[in-house]
Design a protein that fits this description.
The protein is of the alpha/beta class. The chain is 41% helix and 15% strand. Strands 1, 2, 3, 4, 5, 6, 7, 8 and 9 form a nine-stranded mixed beta sheet that branches.
Length: 344
């Protein structure tokens, strides 16, 4: 009876851990979840058929798990979605099998949602750590879509969602194996508020086998797709659209420089078969975006004239640099124009 009363007092929190061959880390992850000692916890582990000692470790804790499975799957994103479909908590999150929650995180999260029932998504601070190196406390600050699309980082392990908003917006896009959380937050930002709280919830582990280090170059093509998708929508204002445009331009130049240093061609960037089986050509994506309407079709009093002029000047600067980096690109390429107020 006492346990039932305790559970009623606290919202149910569902945590999903996707796992694959991370036996050297997963026990610490599992313990960081269970030792929260949170009375209304639903913990789900989805293992992709590990061939190391991961399954042996998971079995040690199976009496504390709501569900676990070890079977071949389509990767991390698919595994998390599998967990989402099983989850029944009011609040939901995932933590990878090499990251950790800090002590007391779940009680803090529950209290924040309880005091702010209108909150749909919250994120907090995160400790970045790597063996034999000093820790770093990442404090991202309040959510701002312009800063977010420009590349401001929100630590995924310190992010928690109301389960119903995930179900409404749709689960993770299984085309993405690297930028899955970026895409989810982009979609959520157009539907609900995303709130920062100045509390530390998790620890993000850097190690040589983590995606963030060993496969960081593979984030680029997925980011291109996510940003192009955002530009095609109608939820972003002109300045935010321009910030995305500028970031894609910068990413393209950085990518070209990186590949040049490696004696590779930008056309050799590809996204593996999991993104529609198509090659993602950075140049092609960027030049396609040049055709998107960054300025409104008609003059409207809702648009600030100075902002439009600023955008136009920035686009002129981009054409200048295009002429340096891409000599074949015509500088006289038509830029969308709408009124004499911002025509040449």
């Amino acid at each position: 009876m006492a346990i039932k009363m305790m559970k009623k007092k606290y919202p149910k929190i569902s945590i999903i851990t996707p796992s694959y061959n991370q036996g050297q880390y997963i026990e610490e992850t599992i313990r960081s979840v269970l030792l929260q000692d949170y009375p209304n916890l639903e913990y789900i582990i989805i293992d992709g058929g590990s061939t190391d000692n991961s399954v042996e470790i998971i079995k040690k804790y199976e009496s504390y798990l709501a569900y676990w499975v070890s079977e071949p799957d389509e990767g991390q994103t698919s595994a998390i979605n599998k967990g989402f479909r099983r989850a029944t908590g009011d609040i939901i999150a995932w933590i990878n099998s090499d990251d950790l929650y800090v002590e007391g995180a779940f009680y803090k999260v529950a209290e924040i949602f309880k005091q702010n029932p209108h909150f749909s998504v919250i994120y907090g601070n995160c400790i970045f750590f790597k063996e034999n190196e000093p820790e770093y406390l990442h404090k991202p600050g309040a959510f701002d879509i312009k800063r977010f699309v420009a590349g401001d980082y929100i630590a995924q392990p310190s992010t928690f969602f109301k389960r119903h908003v995930i179900e409404e917006i749709g689960y993770l896009d299984e085309r993405f194996h690297f930028s899955l959380d970026y895409d989810l937050l982009m979609r959520l930002s157009s539907k609900c508020s995303i709130e920062y709280v100045d509390e530390t919830f998790a620890q993000f582990r850097f190690h040589d086998d983590s995606k963030t280090i060993s496969q960081r170059f593979h984030f680029l093509p997925e980011n291109f797709i996510i940003m192009e998708k955002a530009l095609k929508g109608d939820k972003l204002d002109i300045k935010t659209r321009y910030i995305i445009f500028k970031r894609i331009f910068n990413m393209t130049l950085i990518t070209q420089q990186t590949l040049s240093d490696l004696n590779l061609k930008i056309e050799e960037i590809h996204s593996n078969s999991h993104i529609d089986g198509k090659m993602i050509n950075g140049n092609e994506v960027f030049f396609h975006l040049m055709h998107l309407k960054l300025l409104p079709e008609t003059t409207d009093t809702n648009y600030n004239k100075q902002e439009l002029l600023e955008i136009k000047e920035n686009i002129r600067s981009i054409f200048h640099y295009l002429n340096i980096y891409y000599p074949a690109f015509p500088v006289t390429h038509n830029v969308p124009r709408n009124s004499s107020a911002h025509n040449s």
